[in-house]
Amino acid sequence: MDEIINKVANSKLKTINLEDYYPPGQRVVFDIADWLFQGIVLKEKDFRESAKNHAWSQYKNQYVALTCSTEAIIPGWAYLLITSYLSPFSRKVVVGDLTDLETILFAETLQKADFSEYTNLPVIIKGCSNKPVPDNAYILLLQKLQPIVKSLFYGEACSSVPLYKQKK
Description:
alpha/beta, four-stranded mixed beta sheet, 5 helices, 7 strands, about 30% helix, elongated
C-alpha cells in the first residue's frame, strides 16, 4: 500500500491568519444622537453640558467609534469635544462605525508588523475568521506582502485562489 504524503505540510507554503493580528480589547459605539435635541439638532450649550456630566471612566481601555445614527449635520468640533473627554480613558477613538474602527486598528497593527519571514515564499492569506476582520485589513496585508513574497493566495491550502505571482 502506498504511503499518503501531505504535500501541503511538506511545502514552503506559509499561511497568515489576520485573526492573529486582531488587537484585543472591547469595542463600543458612542452615538451622539442621544445628545441632540429631537435627535437632529445640536444645541451647543446642552451638548457641552451632557459631555461635562457624562461618566467617561466607563470607557477605560476601550476602543470607541463615535457616530451619529440620525441624519443630523454634526459640526466637527462636537467629535473633538467628545474625544477630549474620552482620550484620558479610552485606548483609541475614531469617527465612524465599528468597521471603520477595526480598519484603523488593523492598519496600525499591520504597519508595525514584521513580515520578513515570508520573503520569497508562497503565502496564503487565510480567508475565514471568527473575529470581525474588515475587508480593508486583507487589502492592507496584501499590500505589505506583495513586494516581498514569491506568490500570494487567498483561502485555504486545499482550495486557494491565486492573487499574485512574482515575475521571474
